[in-house]
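Module 6 notes. Inverse folding takes a fixed backbone as the condition and produces residue identities as the prediction. Think of it as a translation problem where the source language is geometry and the target language is the twenty amino acids. Below is one complete input and output pair. Work through it position by position during the lab.
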């Protein structure tokens, strides 16, 4: 595991997450999710991350991106997945979506409702003071 991935996983477990530029956001409470629901959420998060990062018109703000990626990292840690299993089981299939010409228009519109769901679970996209 790279030092950056380890830092993101640590921050995700602590309840906040840092974006590449140092942004910290509040993460949703995922502790009570049943395993199947956590896995389904991780799949959706990986797909939204890949699609919004690669498809024009579906970009996320830094706060939204941090919320999406760090929530996925938190869930991976919660389920005991190491970085290679997380990449193999969730990100590899999400990247394969880019081979499907309809994937952008099918997955892209799910980003806003997914972010709203994460906010409803206690997450946020506004930058927090690192000391919080």
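Target side of the pair, the amino acids:
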């Amino acid at each position: 595991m790279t030092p950056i991935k380890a830092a993101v996983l640590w921050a995700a477990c602590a309840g906040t997450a840092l974006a590449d530029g140092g942004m910290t956001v509040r993460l949703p409470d995922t502790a009570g999710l049943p395993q199947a629901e956590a896995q389904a959420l991780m799949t959706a998060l990986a797909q939204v991350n890949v699609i919004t990062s690669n498809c024009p018109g579906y970009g996320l703000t830094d706060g939204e991106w941090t919320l999406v990626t760090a929530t996925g990292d938190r869930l991976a840690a919660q389920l005991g997945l190491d970085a290679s299993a997380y990449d193999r089981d969730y990100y590899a299939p999400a990247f394969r979506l880019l081979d499907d010409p309809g994937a952008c228009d099918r997955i892209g519109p799910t980003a806003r409702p997914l972010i709203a769901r994460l906010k409803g679970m206690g997450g946020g996209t506004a930058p927090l003071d690192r000391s919080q």
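Reference fact for the lab report: The beta strands are 16-18, 24-26.
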